[in-house]
What we know:
Belongs to the aromatic-ring hydroxylase family. KMO subfamily. By secondary structure, the protein is of the alpha/beta class. It is built from 15 helices and 19 strands. The strands form 4 sheets. Strands 6-5-14-15-16-13-17 form a 7-stranded mixed sheet. The longest helix is centred in the C-terminal third of the chain and has 31 residues, at 336-366.
Amino acid sequence: MKQDSLKVAVIGAGLVGTLLAIYLKKAGHDVHVFDRSADIRKIEFSGRSINLAISTRGWKSLDDVQIGDQIREIAIPMDKRAIHKKDGTLAFQKYGMKGESIYSVSRGGLNRLMIDIAEEKGIHFHFEQKIWDVNLEEAIIHIGETERGDWTDLKFDKVFGTDGAFSRVRHRMQRQNLFDYSQVFLKLGYKELCIPANEDGTHKIDPNSFHIWPRSEFMLIALANEDGSFTCTLFMPFEGENSFEAINTEEKVKDFFMNNFPDTKELIPDLVADYFKNPTSSLITTHCYPWTFKDKVALLGDAAHAIVPFYGQGMNAGFEDISEMYRQMEKHGNDWETIFEEYQKIRKPNADAIAELSFRNFVEMGTNTADEKFLLQKKIEAKFTEKYPNKWLPLYDRVTFSLNPYIDALAIGDQQKNIMDEIMSIENIENIWDSEEIESMILSKLK
C-alpha cells in the first residue's frame, strides 16, 4: 500500500539508523539522519569495536533493498569455529548443517559504506548534531551544543530513534507514565586487540574461521578483516583474580597471555600497547516497552533492545526490526498508529528471546566449546539432523541460518536441550551414541 511522502528524522547514523533511512527513502519519504558524532568516514574508527557477523536475517534485510551484494564485497565468510586450546592445539567446529557461513565485517568499514550508499540515494546526513530532547506529541527534535544552552527546534512528521543502548529518544520516552525500562550490566568487560597482517598482506591465521580461545570465565575471539588483519576482543571480568582490575602492569599482561593464550605470542606484537591504549568497555542488556509513541515516534535496534554480543545477533536483530517495520508500512499504508503498534507487538517478544539466548551463549562460547562431552553432543545432533531434517534443527542454525522467529528458536531450543541432557546422561554414551537405540530414544522423546 503506497504511503504519502513525509519528512522524517532518524536519530543515529549507525548501522540500523542508516539502513532504516534507506528503507524509508525507498517508501518515498524525505529522510534526515542526525548523529551527535563526527562523520565516521572522516575519522579513525578503532579501539572499542567488536567485529560484526552478518547472518541470514541481516542479509535478507540488506538484499531486500538491493545493497547486499555491495556489502558482500567487504565481508569474509566464516564456515566454522576454530577453537584454540590452552595446550596450543586447534579444533574446528563447522557451523551450519548445510555448510552455511556467517560473515565477518568491520563495523567501521560497513558503516562507512552504508552511509555512502544512503547519500547516493538522496538521504540527508547531519553530523555533530546533539539531540537533547524530543517533543513526542509534535515529533519535534531539540538540537544544541550543550544540554543547558540554546536549542534549535526542528519539526518532522515522524521521529525514529536508532541511537543505541543509551538512546536520547528512549530517554525522553522513559519519562512517560507506564513506560517500562530495565538495564543490566554484565560483570564482564571487553577490550579490543589486533592481529596485524603478514608483511605481504595475507592473514596470519585462517580468515574463514571464527577464532575462539575459550577459558571459562574469560575468552579471546578474533575475526578477519579485509586488509589481512584480525580484530580481536578480550572478554574478561572487571574485578577478581583474572580481571581488568588485576592485570594492570606490562608484566602482568605478558604473563597472563603467556599462561592462557600462549599461541598468540607471535600473533599480537603490539599486545601491551593495545591493552593499555584501548578502553575497557562494558556490556549491557536493556529491556523497555512500549517502543512507540502514538503515530509519531518509534525505537529500533539497540535503542529498543540492546543485547550482549555472544550470539552475534545484535545488528541482525536490529536489521530484522527494520524489515518488520517496512512490512507493516506496506500492509497499512498511512495508518502509522497501526504500523507502529503491530511492529512492536511482533518484535518485542523476539527481542526478549534473542536477549536471553545471547546471554546464555557466553557459557557455550567460553566453556562448552572446549568440552569433549559438548562436542559429542554436537556430533549426535548433527547426525540426527542429517537423517531427520524435518524433526530436528540445532538451536544455532535456528537462530543464525533461518528467518524463523527468535521466540520459536528459544522454545524449541529449550525442548531440544532437555532431550539432549537426558541422552548425554546415559551411561557409556560415548560408545553407543551412533546406535539405533539412541536414535529411537530421541525420536520417542520428540513425540
